[in-house]
Structure formats: C-alpha cells, structure tokens
Amino acid sequence: MKKIHIVGLVLVALSIAALISFLGDMSTYDSIESAQKKEGRFVHIIAKVDTTKPIIYDPIKDPNYLSFTAVDSLGSFTQVVYKNSRPTDFEKSSRVVMKGAMQNGTFECKEIVLKCPSKYKDEKSNQL
C-alpha cells in the first residue's frame, strides 16, 4: 500500500470514531415514566414544577440544593434533586427542561433550562 492510502484509511477511521462519540452524547426527550425505566442513563425531560407540593430550597443552609416535584404532560411525577443554585424565576416558569438521570426513584438533575412563554409573546398581544 502506498502512504497516501494508509493516511486515507487513518482519516476515515478517525472520522468514524468521532461520529460514534457524538452519537453517544445525543439524547432525546423522555417522559418521566420512560426515564424511570432507564435508571442511571442520561435523559432530557420536559415537565412542569408542581407548585402544590413543597419546593425545598434554603440558601442559608445549602445554596446548592433544590428539591421539587415535577409533573410531565402524561401525568407522571417524580421528585427532582438539583445540586446547584436555584434558577431565577424558577416558580414562574411554565415548563422546565431537565437534564440528568434517575437514581433510586429520584431524578438527579444536572442542568435545568426554564421555558417561559411570556418571553415569546408577540408585541401585538401585549398591547391588547
């Protein structure tokens, strides 16, 4: 084999390895029920914060601990533990996207993204 063929094969092998590593990081949105079946695996869940249940956050005792109950669109619910500071306007958010994994019946959240529809209203509806 010529050197150019060997270099080409190495580049193809590196490209395949890079694609496989990116596919491993990809995740789809799951319901709470399907996330419970995938215990320990990293998932994304879209849910609402259940404001009728207690939201545990004491910035004096532990500013990096937030616990709440989340309910998805199918009616399933789970206890969520987020070990980071509470996001601003957390209770006002209409939906949250949570990234993490189920551990022993609790969703251990690594990242929370708030969805607030009021930020996306067009200006015409605000003037009425």
SSE map:
Layout lengths: L2 H23 L3 E2 L1 H6 L5 E7 L6 E3 L3 E10 L5 E6 L12 E9 L2 E10 L7 H5 L1
Parallel strand pairs: 1-2, 5-7
Antiparallel strand pairs: 2-4, 2-6, 3-4, 4-5, 6-7
Structure commentary:
The protein is built from three helices and seven strands, in the order H-E-H-E-E-E-E-E-E-H. The chain has 128 residues and is an alpha+beta fold. It has a domain at 28-116: OB fold (Dihydrolipoamide Acetyltransferase, E2P) (Beta Barrel), CATH 2.40.50. A five-stranded mixed beta barrel has the order 2-4-5-7-6. The N and C termini lie far apart (74 Å). The relative contact order is 0.16.
The largest sheet has its strands arranged as 2-4-5-7-6
Q: Structural class from helices and strands? A: alpha+beta
Average pLDDT, rounded to a whole number, is 83
Residue fraction in strands: 35-45%
CATH topology of the domain at 28-116, anyone? OB fold (Dihydrolipoamide Acetyltransferase, E2P)
N- and C-termini, Cα separation: 74 Å
Bulk shape: elongated
Key attributes of the depicted protein:
single chain; 128 residues; OB fold (Dihydrolipoamide Acetyltransferase, E2P); five-stranded mixed barrel; 7 strands; elongated; disordered C terminus
Summarize the structure.
This protein is of the alpha+beta class. The protein has helices spanning 3-25, 32-37, 123-127, and strands at residues 29-30, 43-49, 56-58, 62-71, 77-82, 95-103, 106-115.
